[in-house]
Each structure stands twice: as structure tokens, then as C-alpha cells.
Design goal:
There is one protein chain. The chain is α+β, with helices and mostly antiparallel strands and about 170 residues long. It folds into 2 domains: about 5-75, Arc Repressor Mutant, subunit A; about 80-155, no CATH class. About 30% of the residues lie in helices and about 25% in strands. The chain contains 6 helices and 10 strands, in the order ααβααββαβαββββββ. It has helices spanning about 5-10, 15-25, 30-35, 40-50, 70-75, 95-100; strands spanning about 25-30, 55-60, 65-70, 95, 105-110, 115-120, 120-125, 125-130, 145, 150-155. A 3-stranded antiparallel sheet has the order 1-3-2. Strand 6 and strand 7 form a beta hairpin. Helix 1 runs antiparallel to helix 4 (about 40-50) and helix 3 (about 30-35) packs across helix 4.
């Protein structure tokens, strides 16, 4: 699946509205069309584009198709912009020994552990994966004893709910 399909799918306000509805509830095509306020055939065409982009999945229950939004492809959308490095370290050195070779990675120590504070000046919370998996130890305790791929990912706040709280007087 290329990013062109993903960007095309996200370029329509109607498809964005469909995604909003399907992120919250699993729905039948007819109910979705009614909720959005457009015809079933038009809704079906929009759903097909979203499905081709990998943003919607169908689940079959008897002879009924239920639709649900998926969010995994949003992460993949930015992968072409990932900066790549190849470095060498001695066996049994920590991942932080590897990170010292990467320009722009700022580390901070708190309560006896080291954390990634920022990458290229972009402060925030970062997690790491080794060969596509989340390890069970902090990054400063992970010792490397074979070739690995280290992915650094910034945790990005995604608003899922906007709640207005009114105080009674």
C-alpha cells in the first residue's frame, strides 16, 4: 500500500467524517450512510477508497458487513521521512553507547536511569523498538550482543476525545 492511496483517502472531508464515526463505533454501511447524511452508494464508494488505503476493515457477521476504522497505517504514512544511520559498537555495549554516535540525540539522567530527552531538538517522550519489538528493559540497560535494528519513536499526543465540562452555579 503506497502513501498515495493513503493521502487520497484522507483528502476528502466526507471520508474523514466516516473515519471519525468508525473510530468510535463499528457500523453497517446503511447506518453509516444515515449517520453521515449521504446515500448508501456514495458512502460505499468512499468506504472502498478508505478500505483500499487500509484505513477500514470489514467484519462479516452472517450476511452483514460491519465496518471499523483501523489506525495502523497512519504510522506508516511518515516512514519515508525516517532518517537512517548505520553504526558499529563493541559487543555487550549498551544502546546508549550506540546513540552517542548519532548527532542530535540528547540524553538526560533521572533517578539513576538515562532517557532520550530530544532528537534534533524535538523534546518529548520517546520509546524504542529492537527489530520491530518492544523490549522489556529500559533503553539504558539493553546490552547489544548481536546485530539489531533500533527504531526510536516519539510518542505523539493524538486527541481522541474533546470533553467540555461545565460547572453548575
Amino acid at each position: 500500500m503506497g502513501n498515495n492511496k493513503l493521502f487520497r483517502a484522507l483528502s476528502s472531508s466526507t471520508r474523514l467524517e466516516i473515519l471519525k464515526k468508525l473510530l468510535v463505533n463499528e457500523m453497517h454501511l446503511t447506518g453509516l450512510a444515515k449517520e453521515i447524511g449521504i446515500s448508501v452508494p456514495v458512502t460505499s464508494r468512499h468506504v472502498k477508497i478508505l478500505e483500499d488505503a487500509g484505513l477500514i476493515k470489514k467484519r462479516v457477521v452472517g450476511n452483514v458487513y460491519l465496518l471499523k476504522a483501523t489506525v495502523g497505517n497512519f504510522e506508516k504514512m511518515l516512514e519515508p521521512f525516517t532518517e537512517e544511520f548505520s553504526i558499529e559498537i563493541e559487543e555487550e555495549k549498551s544502546l546508549f553507547d550506540a546513540l552517542k554516535q548519532i548527532p542530535g540525540v540528547e540524553v538526560e539522567e533521572r533517578k539513576g536511569h538515562q532517557y532520550i530527552k530530544s532528537i534534533d531538538g524535538d523534546e518529548g517522550y520517546y520509546i524504542y523498538e529492537i527489530n520491530g519489538r518492544l523490549p522489556k528493559k529500559p533503553i539504558d540497560e539493553y546490552m547489544v550482543n548481536k546485530n539489531v535494528t533500533l527504531d526510536l519513536k516519539k510518542l505523539i499526543s493524538v486527541k481522541r476525545k474533546n470533553i467540555r465540562i461545565k460547572v453548575k452555579k
